[in-house]
Amino acid sequence: xxxxxxxxxxxxxxxxxxxxxxxxxxxGQCERPVLLFSGxxxxxxxxxxxxxxxxxxxxxFPLMHIDTGHNYKEVTDFRDKRAAELGERLIVRSVEDSMxxxxxxxxxxxxxxxKHQSVxxxxxxxxxxxxxxxxxARRDEEKARAKERVMSFRDEFGQWDPKNQRPELWxxxxxxxxxxxxxxxxxxxxxxxxxxxxYIEREKLELPSIYFxxxxxxxxxxxxxxxxxxxxxxxxxxxxxxxxxxxxTVGDITCTAPVESTASTVEQIVVETATTTITERGATRLxxxxxxxxxxxxxxxxxx
Length: 304
Hints:
Layout: H1 11-29, E1 33-36, H2 41-54, E2 63-67, H3 73-86, E3 90-94, H4 95-101, H5 117-128, E4 132-134, H6 143-146, E5 151-154, E6 182-185, H7 193-203, E7 214-221, E8 224-227, E9 240-246, E10 259-260, H8 266-275, H9 280-284, H10 294-300
Parallel strand pairs: 1-2, 1-4, 2-3, 4-6
Antiparallel strand pairs: 5-6, 7-8, 7-9, 9-10
């Protein structure tokens, strides 16, 4: 009788292996890729996958964050610290600089800068001549993202056409693009929010503190909680409450809402995620509430 035993891979092993394969395909097929790293949980997973794909060597691409200038300090501090720990190059390009150049013009001083990240991203792609951007978007986040291929083609104007995408057969990925065109690659596209948290738990990945339960002043806006900050002060008539919350996603302060939670550890967040009935972006994003197709329209304009 054979003494060999059959090894069974867990679903996280399969997802990780697929993501490593995709990341190596990008590195192999593209000349100047870049990994988008915001300090959020999804891009933190991408960094671990990049470590497993390319260590002990350096990453074959720099890291880049498109900063609105309105991100939580806990997150940007974590971003800088993590990039330094890895010894990898971090490029930060800001919407503020696009505003100074005149390529971004706000309709009003308090308009959210989030959607204008598209302009700054396209400017950064042109500046560094990146031919591929590796991002942490997942299909389960939002229906426009569910339409994306793993390697999603953008034309010379940074535009995405959801009705004219390249076929992807099995694990054959096509990252070919002419100069000026661009590929957006999503190695964890097949992951769910639960997969991300279970991977963070398994890999013992460090996170910004705002992912865990803490008390914060908020104003209720329908089903969402608007954090009270210098950028988002309470308005006359608003009722400010001190509520135990955590963030399921991190992003621009003006459009990212926390959720009520007492989960203070990754293990508790995994349990909480297993029982929630509201999608991640549905519970946390004020900017996705404007219309049914708001994300799809922004992606057509060059958004992640």
